[in-house]
Amino acid sequence: MKEKNHFILSEGDVNHSHSRNEWQNSYLNDQTKQILKDDKRYFLHQSLSTPCLNVVSECEGIFLTDEQGRDIMDFHGNAVHQVGYRNPAVIKAMKDALDLLPFSPRRYTNKWAVQLAKELTSLTENQLSKVLFAPGATSAIGMALKLARLATGKHKVISMWDSFHGASLDAISIGGERLFRKGLEPLLPGTIHVPSIDSYRPLWEGHSGDPIQLVKYIEYTIEKDGEVGAIVMETIRNTDVQIPPKVFYQELRRVCDRHGVLLILDETPIGLGRTGKMFAYEHYDIIPDIVVLGKGLGGGVFPLAAMLAKEELDIASETALGHYTHEKSPVGAAASSAVISYLKDNNLLERTAYLEQLLNKRLNELKEKYVQIGDIRGIGLLFAVELVKDRTSKERAYEEADQIMYACLKKGLSFKVSKGNVIQLCPPLTITEEELEKAIQILDDSFAEVIQ
Fold it and tell me: Are strands 373-379 and 413-418 parallel, antiparallel or unpaired?
């Protein structure tokens, strides 16, 4: 994996590497290999997905179980498993709805969908008091873009390079991942990209230390262009975990208000407790105009997303913003309500804030032990361990990260590698201290094995 191919290392797994081939050849039995062969035969190949790595047969709590019966601690989970896999409360709620109303035609509503809408808006203290549901967050992003055009009369959007907002054509247009855009242009017109926040590799002196410089650049762009209707951002960058300081968002909110620009925050992978608060924007003492939720909203069972908006944005009664077949799924809404109840009843927000301190302490101990760890970034139960050749040059340690991931997989720990050198740790919020310590020990042992 060479530097010139770094664009393929942006969002997650690489479908091919020496470590991957070696791991599969030595670790998988013939039955598993046959299933993978069939999977490769019938599914269209695409980066980050097919061909697949392994075959799973069960999941529960923080664990996946593969076809060979081995348990794997899942610190990846595509960010859907806040309340753990196969959560009994979520499954029961879905079964209860399934027995009565498995599908609700679009011209009707149902009590499950209405209840979920009421619960979500109340979580914002009714500051975001209007909701639409969609089958996935990519679609919810599309609804937000439509609503912004209608509300402002302007079609242009500012977003950030390196951001990810979904894989549909409109979502990759505002997204900043080269991997998803390559070969697919021309994309949605009117998308303007600005530099992303990177606390470890700032683009210019003071870029991250003084984030107001970036806000000033955004305001300059708004003023010069004159047709910007919205800014779309991940509140906290998920895959390589970039956490803007509070002053950035507070000033950005003021800029949006001055120019009549909507602030749309994408919390698809990080909302619902991942950061220690129900919504990540709560860390910044601001109220966005629109928030998008997804992934964990369906409890790791049902695909469901939501767009939450301010009351004054209820202006599209003559336009179909969503109009999705499964827009108000009773089963999906029941799952989501169960997720919210489970987070509250088990004090998972408070517990996440506590475990954050433990995980931060243990990872920084590893940083003192291994000079190849250049940076530790984290909030709640979302952490990044950035690997470098050395801390002075900050050259990305691609091969080492790849080798460490497969060493960890052999020991029963799975996680995402972002940008080719950033180990992203994203466990269920239900994880115990003992399980967290075991995962850190696996990581420690794997570092010791790979880095001589």
Answer: unpaired
The closest alpha carbon to 59, from 37, 80, 42, belongs to 80
DSSP secondary structure letters along 128-163: S-EEEEESSHHHHHHHHHHHHHHHHS--EEEEETT-
Of the candidates 236, 242, 343, the one whose C-alpha atom is nearest the C-alpha of residue 300 is 343
Q: Identify whether the C-beta of residue 117 lies closer than 8 Å to the C-beta of residue 152.
A: no
- CA angle 239/233/296 to nearest 5° reads 55
Which is nearest to 269 in space by CA: 136, 179, 371? 136
Lowest-pLDDT range of 33-37, 49-53, 92-96, 418-422: 49-53
User: Cα separations (Å) of 215 from 195, 225, 231, 248?
Assistant: 11, 15, 11, 7
CA distances to 119, 158, 276, 446 from 246, rounded to whole Å, are: 27, 20, 16, 35
> At 396, phi and psi to the nearest 5?
-65, 135
208, 241 in Cβ contact below 8 A? no
Task: Provide the strand spans (E) within 223-277.
Answer: 228-234, 262-266
Instruction: Quote the CA–CA distance of 403 and 450 in Å, as a whole number.
Output: 7
- Cα-trace Rg, the chain: 22
Alpha helices in 7-107 (DSSP H): 18-27, 30-42, 88-100
Residues 6+ apart with CB under 8 A from 193: 158, 159, 160, 161, 176
Angle, CA of 251, 277 and 283, to the nearest 5°: 15
Helix (H, G, I), strand (E, B) or coil at 213: helix
Q: Which band of pLDDT confidence, cut at 50, 70 and 90, is reported for residue 207?
A: low
- Residues with Cβ within 8 Å of 351's Cβ and at least 6 positions away in sequence, in order, are 429
The Cα 151–Cα 135 span in angstroms is: 23
**Phi/psi at 298 (5° precision):** -90, 10
The DSSP 8-state label assigned to residue 227 in this structure reads: -
Preceding amide of 51 cis, omega within 30: yes
DSSP state at residue 347: T
Ordered strands of the 130-134 beta sheet: 130-134, 305-309, 290-293, 262-266, 228-234, 156-160, 191-194
- Among the listed residues 70, 136, 108, 439, the one whose alpha carbon sits nearest the alpha carbon of residue 296: 136
Q: Does the global pTM surpass 0.90?
A: yes
| Bridging pattern class, strands 422-425 and 290-293 | unpaired
What is the arithmetic mean of pLDDT over 118-137? 98
Query: What is the distance in angstroms between the CA of the first residue and the CA of the last residue of the chain?
Result: 20
